[in-house]
Amino acid sequence: VSEKNHDRPLGFWSATGAVIATMIGAGIFGATGGFAHELGTDGNVLLVWLFCGGLALTGALSLGELGAMMPRSGGCYTYNRHLYGDTAGYLSGVLSWLLAFVGALAYVTLLLGHHVQQFAPDLPPAAAASIVVVLLTAAHCFGLREGNWMNNAFTIFKVGVILAFIVAGFSVPAQAELNTKINTAGILSSPFASAMISVSFAYLGWETATWIAGDLRAPQKNLPRSLIVGTAFVTGLYLLLNIVFLRAQSVTTMDEKIDGIGLHAAEILFSGNVSTWFNCMIIAVLLSTTSTILMVGARILATMAQDGQLPAVLAKTNAREAPIPSLVVQAIFTIIFVWAASSHGNADNVLVL
């Protein structure tokens, strides 16, 4: 992980893939159903997704410039430490790792566990989540390149599945007329602001490449480009997915009970056993997200250990540049979070913890 002593095996496409894989989770398949009926028009629904994508893009532009100036792994930890000192850097790094990575891993893997139950009803979600964490962590322990190849394969498969869903959605007759008219008065309303909060969560992860900047080739060039291209691509993908959802059902007939708008749209547009293959798609999406977060999160611990902010053992890597101690510690904390949240009911309790 040391930027001084190892080659930089990750290129532009790997960094872009990491951004895409982290951003695209299950949220895109549920968020719209919770607020669409309050916005009133299809145009306003699409606008809120476009607007939040624009906000994420401005963040990508800003951190891309900052990351090019300090091309080192650690993301906001590195920037805060450089600008505000060791204490600010330490707090930023530990909190980011616990909340944005360990917490996110626990939430995503528990959600994955719930989807796995459709195929293995006797397997508790927490057990499935723990198995996924252990297996993917073990895979990343083989080496940085090997872990990156796995992430790239997951990302390509995930994007391919989602694009296939979009193409299929446009290939069948629409069940609702798409109205792209924008209600300008609604833009300044509290429902629009509330919708922005929900949608913003679906864009989390746009800064992913900054956490692994020390492993990027030509980071001054590839870091900003990967942030911008990855964020722009996901924004476009989200807009297309929402158009598919809106072709299935008008916002006027939606209500807040339709949390799984993606599945609901698929059931309206397609025939056959939709829930099974849709469930498989969600599992693929969540596996990709989990694998990338595991790789990136371990980089934070290793970078902090290099700086003397955490025990030096966490900075150790094997011959293939895998920070095994950091990966193992991260897996242990994630599994603790998983079982703690599971004991309180469901994946949403990770947010409470």
Automatic annotation (TrEMBL):
<dbReference type="InterPro" id="IPR002293">
    <property type="entry name" value="AA/rel_permease1"/>
</dbReference>
<keyword id="KW-0812">Transmembrane</keyword>
<feature type="transmembrane region" description="Helical">
    <location>
        <begin position="125"/>
        <end position="144"/>
    </location>
</feature>
<protein>
    <recommendedName>
        <fullName>Amino acid permease/ SLC12A domain-containing protein</fullName>
    </recommendedName>
</protein>
<feature type="transmembrane region" description="Helical">
    <location>
        <begin position="89"/>
        <end position="113"/>
    </location>
</feature>
<dbReference type="GO" id="GO:0016020">
    <property type="term" value="C:membrane"/>
</dbReference>
<feature type="transmembrane region" description="Helical">
    <location>
        <begin position="47"/>
        <end position="68"/>
    </location>
</feature>
<feature type="transmembrane region" description="Helical">
    <location>
        <begin position="322"/>
        <end position="341"/>
    </location>
</feature>
<feature type="transmembrane region" description="Helical">
    <location>
        <begin position="182"/>
        <end position="206"/>
    </location>
</feature>
<feature type="transmembrane region" description="Helical">
    <location>
        <begin position="276"/>
        <end position="301"/>
    </location>
</feature>
<feature type="transmembrane region" description="Helical">
    <location>
        <begin position="227"/>
        <end position="246"/>
    </location>
</feature>
<feature type="transmembrane region" description="Helical">
    <location>
        <begin position="12"/>
        <end position="35"/>
    </location>
</feature>
<dbReference type="InterPro" id="IPR050598">
    <property type="entry name" value="AminoAcid_Transporter"/>
</dbReference>
<feature type="transmembrane region" description="Helical">
    <location>
        <begin position="156"/>
        <end position="176"/>
    </location>
</feature>
<dbReference type="Pfam" id="PF13520">
    <property type="entry name" value="AA_permease_2"/>
</dbReference>
<keyword id="KW-0472">Membrane</keyword>
<dbReference type="GO" id="GO:0015179">
    <property type="term" value="F:L-amino acid transmembrane transporter activity"/>
</dbReference>
<keyword id="KW-1133">Transmembrane helix</keyword>
